[in-house]
Amino acid sequence: MARGGRAPARLDANSKKIFSRLMRYLFVDHKGKFIFACVLIVVSAFASVGGSMFLGIFVDQFISPLIGQTDPDWSGFIGALCAMGGIYLAGVVCNYTYFRIMVVVAQGTMKRLRNEMFSHMQTLPLKFFDTHTHGTLMSRYTNDTDVLRQMLSQTIPQLINSTVTIVGTFCMMVFYSATLTLVAMIFVVGMFLFTQKLAKRSGGYFLQQQRALASVNGYIEEMMSGQRVVKVFNHEEKAKAAFRTLNEDLRVNATKANVLTNVIGPISNNIGYIQYIIVAFVAAFLVMEGGWYALSIYGFTQGLSGALTLGAIVSFLNFVRSFNMPIQQITQQFNAIVQAFAGAERIFEMLDAVPEDEGGDVTLVRVTKTGENWYEEREDGELWAWKVPDGSPAGHHFVLLKGDIRFYGVTFGYEEGKTVLHDISLYAKPGQKIAFVGSTGAGKTTITNLINRFYDIQSCTITYDGINIRDVRKSDLRHSLGTVLQDTHLFTGTVMENIRYVRMSATDEECIEAARLAGADSFIRHLPDGYNTMLTSDGANLSQGQRQLLSIARAMVSDCPVIILDEATSSIDTRTEALIEKGMDKLMEGRTVFVIAHRLSTVRNSHAIMVLEHGRIIERGNHDQLMAQKGRYYQLYTGKFELE
């Protein structure tokens, strides 16, 4: 984490690029609205400047001449007062309108940004989520987008308004008195240098504040989802202590950032008051002393031989306040600017993350066979087949999808220099059930991760129906695999919708049959609304075993030639497991099934059992063969050796 002055330098270097990128998002759908809002902002700023100028004219033409008269002529006074009120009213209307437009623009831009973030997130590899906590990612969708919204809807309009006001006001100040302008600018320069120094120091702390806030959000989310575990192990006090540490880190960084920026406003205001008093004093001195330094362009326009008039002084003092106010507003908005740039940097970091490479040109298609020829169909094909590009006149040939998977001397590690699998060779033909047993960390789940291509091997070969899986497009590969994970995840929706999740075209009858085969139909029908019962919070209204049964039913609906069961029955009682096995036997007909299990009773009927230890297959064979060998599997099965 950046400290001291380093982070601000990095933010300064990226700020222009970040701002430019943000504006590109804004211009995609709202360019016209934004330009119109800018026009209104300029009109509003000029109305403010024009009102201050009109005030001086009003004093010189209507107030000063009428002072001391016994019978003053008020004929033009009301009209002039209405004209000045009209100018200010126009500014108010423009101000109200452009703020409403910018709210619409900001919300639309954030909608597009969130959509793009979510779409891009779906393309990221599993490794990205392994290296980023859920809370950190959620913070980018919530906190970071919110500070960006505030910048677009409030800060940017304010900055434009303030800039136009500063330029217009400065020109009018020179118009009224160059001498007084010079006096006023001495204070402005001092104020600018002071605020710039504080701004640079606070920049790094805002970046640290955003990161600390993400850590706090992540920890809260983690504790909310893990409350059962926290209470089971009496971890409440330790959890509170850990949260207090994270919360204190957030407080420290937020305090450092906001203390520096929050003192800018009060100090700027006090400098402005001193400036106002000194300018008024100098103006009075110039009026009394006269001389060339008291000349005013305004005075010449009023036919007063260039003399500095009472109206000029009134307008000039009003301009001084008008000039200081936008400067103070800019400095006060610095907090929002730095926070927004810090949030944008984190959002763009996610958007710039390299998406998962589909990696391959072999696709999965529906086909129909007519005579000796295969024909690709859009939706109504009888069978699935791999469409393999080749040098034939047709440009491709079809390989019927069967589910034949083979490993040839596969060695793999998640990190360079840390090998997890060593020289793994195996084959699984359609209709075979292959089981993997071994201690935690032996490499069982890694094998299924490689089949899914969650991670790619750099050398060696894994084939699927004789095709190197690195040549198969990942989305099509996973479409052919039905997977049940130990860590079940159910989505907000009905039970029926969760079962149908993997194949949206599945009928209600197919989903119910899958639930029956999985042993889930009985408990589903006892739910308040049966298959229409709404599930929320990852199926919190179901037991862990019930959630696992729904996951198995979901895999059955997928109707895939290859089924992967990763501890799929670990949370199911033995009676229910026996019922499921009957359905599973029917499901496995003609399919390739990979099973990872700690409960060895679930792998007895496997065609081949692979015993893994430290990433190596140390034994292989069916149940009877391995029991006869009286090796590690025998020890595990008889209880002479326990799985870790």
Provide an overview of this structure.
With 644 residues, this protein is an alpha/beta fold. The protein is 59% helix and 13% strand. The chain is built from 19 helices and 16 strands. The protein has helices at residues 6-63, 77-121, 126-130, 134-176, 178-225, 227-232, 236-262, 264-289, 297-301, 310-351, 444-452, 474-479, 495-499, 508-517, 521-525, 544-558, 574-587, 623-629, 632-638, and strands at 363-370, 373-377, 383-389, 396-400, 405-412, 421-428, 433-438, 461-464, 467-468, 481-484, 493-494, 534-535, 562-566, 592-596, 608-613, 616-621. Strands 10-13-14-7-15-16 form a six-stranded mixed beta sheet, sandwiched between helices. Strands 2-1-3-4 form a four-stranded antiparallel beta sheet. The longest helix has 58 residues, at 6-63. The chain is elongated. The two termini are 37 Å apart.
Summarize the helices and strands and which ones pair or pack.
Layout: H1 6-63, H2 77-121, H3 126-130, H4 134-176, H5 178-225, H6 227-232, H7 236-262, H8 264-289, H9 297-301, H10 310-351, E1 363-370, E2 373-377, E3 383-389, E4 396-400, E5 405-412, E6 421-428, E7 433-438, H11 444-452, E8 461-464, E9 467-468, H12 474-479, E10 481-484, E11 493-494, H13 495-499, H14 508-517, H15 521-525, E12 534-535, H16 544-558, E13 562-566, H17 574-587, E14 592-596, E15 608-613, E16 616-621, H18 623-629, H19 632-638
Parallel strand pairs: 7-14, 7-15, 10-13, 13-14
Antiparallel strand pairs: 1-2, 1-3, 3-4, 5-6, 5-8, 8-9, 11-12, 15-16
